[in-house]
């Protein structure tokens, strides 16, 4: 299952002041165009998105066809968020630890009998995917048993009694099974169903309207879709009840999930130390890194710290990524489990709402040269003194005319920013740039002679 995407973090790269910045008209237009294009390209019927900037909600919008019943897209409809739910299960255990009812370093056998290695597996290892318990749903489709209802105990009996895939703490391996066991621990200690505990301690205090995703089907809820290879997009049959439980049982709107992200940014509803613990990557017994905390993927990429998780349910894909230092969060919920629209949209929104990273002196100078040449080419002109011999050879009168004819109609771009780090190749400094317009994006690939600053390569192409 596509439950989280560390690669997403590489798509965003520097701090934003800690105050809300409403979306400008060009930013809103760029997001609307991005979502429409992503849905059209992938065949995904709909998306619901939310954006937090400066610690406040600045966008909650739905797009496309949410079900066969039609109607205008409603941003309040709850999509199935699947494995994004794991951070809520982890939060429940953190709260119970605060209550003095358990310790994350307790072993599983203290609360749930019959789990292989339960006398060695800790609750922390369940939440960090280092338990060694075999994952019961690695497939990206519904397997045969999922047509029949199941209970958490039924999942435990079939998968958590198998031999461990590795000794607890020695490896990292995604395990829905571990989260089902964690959910059983919550219910045993709290004395109430997991969903009820979350309602009382998290959802109601934050004004979140959450649903058990097994009940979030039919009229009033988005419909899940899928496709076989590149075939037609069709409604899919949901799994029978019980298959996600604490591993991914929740459905909510993008706005509701953004409320949780705002609580993370502002350190509310949970004690600040709980948020910090959830966001601290767990190490293996040999000191190796996992890049995973307690129900969230964590790390740093391109100068930004991120807290992230994605989710996959039958007919749904979701992405939730938070940039704590920038007070920014992006939520994208889609109603198809085919296609990468959810990641395209999250990446594109990040490029719109997040500022470019602080550039090194060399990068800043390179950006200035790239922008100057772009403006000249739009007018059908070229500064050959800024080019190496090879680049001057490339820019024939025909090439310059083609650049002008294709760029001039696009108008003035809203931004040109460097995308990714500078890399050396063939004695040149290689840099990529993204050129954004309200309704499309271009990419520029450059090589620069580090000794003279002259441009060796300057190629422009469309970007998805």
Describe what you observe in this structure.
The protein starts with 24 loop residues before the first helix and ends with a strand. The chain is built from 13 helices and 16 strands. The protein folds into two domains: 348 residues, DD-peptidase/beta-lactamase superfamily (Beta-lactamase), CATH 3.40.710.10; 103 residues, Roll (Nuclear Transport Factor 2, Chain: A). The N terminus is likely disordered. The chain is of the alpha+beta class. The strands form four sheets. The protein has a six-stranded antiparallel sheet, sandwiched between helices. 46% of the residues are buried. Helix 2 crosses helix 6.
Write the layout of secondary structure elements.
Blueprint: H1 25-42, E1 46-53, E2 56-64, E3 79-80, H2 86-98, H3 123-127, H4 152-160, H5 176-190, H6 194-206, E4 211-212, E5 225-226, E6 234-235, H7 245-248, E7 250-252, H8 254-266, H9 272-278, E8 297-301, E9 304-313, E10 316-323, E11 328-334, H10 341-353, H11 361-378, H12 389-394, H13 397-407, E12 415-418, E13 423-425, E14 428-437, E15 440-448, E16 455-463
Helix pairs in contact: 1-10, 2-5, 2-6, 4-5
């Amino acid at each position: 299952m596509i439950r989280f995407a560390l690669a997403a973090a590489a798509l965003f790269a520097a701090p934003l002041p800690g105050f809300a910045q409403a979306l400008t008209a060009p930013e809103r237009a760029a997001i609307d165009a991005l979502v429409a294009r992503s849905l059209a390209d992938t065949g995904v019927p709909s998306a619901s998105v939310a954006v937090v900037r400066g610690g406040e909600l600045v966008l909650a919008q739905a797009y496309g066809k949410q079900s066969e019943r039609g109607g205008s897209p409603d941003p309040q409809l709850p999509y199935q968020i699947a494995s994004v739910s794991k951070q809520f299960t982890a939060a429940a255990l953190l709260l119970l630890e605060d209550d003095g009812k358990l310790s994350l370093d307790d072993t599983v056998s203290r609360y749930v009998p019959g789990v292989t290695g339960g006398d060695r597996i800790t609750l922390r290892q369940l939440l960090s995917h280092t338990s060694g318990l075999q994952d019961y749903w690695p497939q990206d489709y519904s397997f045969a048993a999922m047509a029949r209802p199941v209970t958490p105990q039924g999942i435990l009996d079939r998968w958590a009694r198998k031999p461990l895939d590795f000794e607890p703490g020695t490896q990292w391996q995604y395990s829905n099974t571990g989260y089902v066991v964690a959910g059983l621990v919550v219910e045993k200690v709290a004395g109430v169903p997991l969903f009820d505990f979350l309602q009382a301690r998290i959802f109601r205090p934050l004004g979140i309207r959450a649903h058990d995703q097994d009940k979030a089907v039919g009229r009033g809820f988005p419909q899940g879709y899928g496709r076989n290879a590149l075939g037609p997009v069709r409604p899919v049959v949901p799994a029978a009840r019980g298959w996600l439980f604490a591993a991914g049982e929740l459905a909510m709107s993008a706005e509701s999930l953004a409320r949780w992200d705002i609580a993370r940014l502002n350190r509310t509803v949970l004690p600040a130390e709980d948020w910090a613990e959830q966001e601290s990557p767990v190490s293996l017994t040999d000191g190796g890194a996992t890049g995973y905390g307690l129900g969230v993927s964590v790390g740093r990429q391109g100068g930004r710290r991120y807290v992230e998780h994605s989710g996959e349910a039958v007919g749904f894909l979701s992405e939730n990524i938070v940039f704590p230092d920038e007070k920014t969060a992006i939520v994208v919920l889609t109603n198809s489990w085919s296609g990468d629209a959810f990641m395209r949209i999250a990446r594109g929104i990040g490029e719109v709402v997040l500022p470019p990273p602080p550039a090194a002196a060399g990068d800043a100078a390179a950006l200035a040269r790239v922008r100057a040449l772009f403006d000249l080419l739009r007018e059908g002109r070229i500064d050959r003194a800024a080019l190496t011999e090879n680049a001057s050879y490339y820019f024939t009168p025909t090439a310059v005319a083609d650049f002008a004819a294709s760029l001039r109609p696009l108008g003035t771009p809203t931004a040109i920013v460097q995308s990714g780090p500078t890399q050396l190749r063939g004695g040149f400094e290689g840099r990529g740039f993204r050129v954004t317009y309200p309704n499309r994006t271009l990419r520029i690939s450059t090589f620069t002679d580090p000794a003279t600053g002259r441009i060796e390569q300057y190629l422009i192409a469309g970007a998805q």
